[in-house]
Specification:
Length: 286
């Protein structure tokens, strides 16, 4: 397969079992992520999404141990030969539980902490902190104590702390789990903006298929540790197998499938849904 911008992350026949378990959480995963793309990972609970994220940023196997075969290459280099510090220079991570990620007492310190660890000069830190907070819409919280933030605000802070480090790749494990629909949409908008304007490759594990449908260039469905389906969201949601796996379709897509089993082209977004409904009504008007 030829990629316009070349691969940034590559899984080569990668399998992994957590220590003390006999069955593999990921099985023979082959995956090529093109630099600059926005890739979503979804699948039922226990499918291996978190495991895949932890394998990309080196937590697996560097911290988790376990047994693996195959390779993961980041910018062409095997993660086994890199330290987690070296991987973190390329890959920023946001977990679903911001509590586990936030270590400082106030918002500004939280961002400064990562920048100091990366040896960013003080004169550059100010600009990075200001722009990262603005990008996720929490500039007004700069002086607040991290303990006083709501769950959603903490999630935004965790994202700001990751993007302040200007990673080439951002991996996020359900970063909108604490957010309402509007807040979730805003996070995806921010990620898309980072992807478009700064060329940051975004890899996001997420259950909210409406958002994945709207924002991803490529969608990967995991099931029982294997890549069951992957491709453009439109093609992935056309595949009926994913419903059997328990992957929820975007509501508008589900509506179209209920109206006609063989819809010509499935709508994925509200805008496409409106066009689809107008077309459906004109075809079924007596
Ligand atoms: N630390 C661990 N030790 C042993 N087994 C684990 C560990 N973490 C996850 N697993 C197992 O690995 C498999 C994949 O889990 P993983 O958390 O990657 O799935 P997931 O798709 O992220 O699920 P969810 O949507 O529920 O977060 C599951 O069978 C899970 O029970």
């Amino acid at each position: 397969m030829t990629l316009k911008n070349g691969p940034i992350i590559q899984f080569v026949d990668f399998s992994y079992a957590y220590s003390g378990t006999s069955s593999s959480a990921l099985k023979s995963v082959d995956l090529l992520v093109e630099k600059g793309t926005f890739v979503g990972f979804t699948g039922p609970t226990g499918a291996g999404k978190t495991t895949l994220i932890k394998a990309i940023n080196g937590i697996i196997p560097h911290f988790e141990g376990g047994k693996l075969t195959g390779r993961i290459l980041v910018r062409g280099k095997d993660t086994l030969t890199m330290t987690t510090g070296q991987i973190a220079r390329i890959i920023g991570t946001v977990f679903d539980d911001p509590e586990a990620q936030i270590v400082c007492l106030d918002v500004e310190q939280e961002l400064a902490f990562g920048l100091e660890n990366f040896g960013i000069p003080p004169e550059e830190m100010e600009e990075r902190i200001t722009s990262a907070l603005a990008m996720v819409g929490i500039s007004h919280l700069r002086r607040r104590s991290t303990q006083s933030l709501s769950g959603g605000q903490k999630q935004r802070l965790a994202i700001a702390a990751a993007i302040a480090l200007l990673p080439e790749v951002l991996v996020l494990d359900e970063p909108t789990s604490e957010l309402d629909p509007l807040g979730s949409e805003e996070v995806f908008k921010v990620l898309k903006q980072l992807n478009n304007d700064h060329g940051i490759t975004v890899l996001i594990a997420e259950q909210k298929t409406e958002l994945l449908a709207r924002y991803c260039d490529n969608l990967v469905v995991l099931n029982q540790g294997i890549i069951a389906v992957q491709g453009h969201p439109k093609d992935v949601f056309m595949n009926k197998d994913i419903i059997k796996m328990g992957v929820g379709l975007p509501q508008i897509t589900e509506l179209a499938l209920r109206l006609e089993d063989r819809a010509r082209e499935l709508p994925l977004t509200l805008e496409e849904g409106i066009i689809y409904c107008q077309d459906y009504l004109s075809r079924h008007r007596r």
